[in-house]
Amino acid sequence: MKFCANLSFMFAEASSILERYALAKDAGFKAVESGFPFGFSLEQVRNAKQSAGLQQIAINLKTGDTTKGEVGVTSVPGKEDEFKTNLNTTIEYAKALDAKKIHIMAGKVENPTPKHWETFEKNLLYAVDVLKGENIQGLIEPINQYSMPKYFLSDYGRAVDIIKRIDSPNLRLMLDIFHLQQIAGDITHNITKLLPYIGHVQIAQVPNRNEPDTPGEINYKYVLEHLAKSGYDEWVGLEYKAIGNTKDGLTWINNYGYSL
Questions:
Q1: 140, 169, 191, 256: least buried by Cβ within 10 Å?
Q2: Domain 2-255: which CATH number of 3.20.20.150, 2.60.120.260, 1.20.58.1480, 1.10.3720.10
Q3: Might you give the EC number(s) for this enzyme (predicted)?
Q4: How far is the C-alpha of 136 from the C-alpha of 29, rounded, in Å?
């Protein structure tokens, strides 16, 4: 099992994402993933990543002002040009970081209509065509309504239906077990069912989104073993908030029989 640090959640003791690259390296990580690095130039982020000598697995789509709760416009009719601009900007960062996966965030919608679903799929079709030429994989992720109310995509069935219709290796499912538990539960069978469509996995304990071995609903020792037995051998993103110092909280990895 290979673990990568999510720099948007981990190492909160650092003042910026740039410092988190170095802290991830110091903690023993070989790879990271991150949200879009708002406020930092492509050169700043690339230099931080290269100085740390880390591999960048994935990056989130540029979404707008996250402090205002803006998490993308992929599903919003009339915002197609903004989506394309954000996608192109994100691709530039991904290429500079040599990241081969982009999480295409769907956005928030107050009252979803068939038009929103049509727009979402149309924009994904556009993205897949562009990403194919760049050898980058797009990821869509159902997000639970407790963590992000009004997020457009919170249904695994609909996500898989879209992936099937688009039918491209450049569009896969981001499976965050944290969200899976709160949306659908039945983790064992859902991992087995969803595995053919998965492009990336993330984990965090439920409900507080802390380390996998903290008190909560999920037995991650079992879940990780099940993932491996099911044939998943790619990176697992640690998208959790450490209770204390991030590095100190990594003892669960050795306790579960893994290493960085």
A1: 169
A2: 3.20.20.150
A3: 5.3.1.22
A4: 23
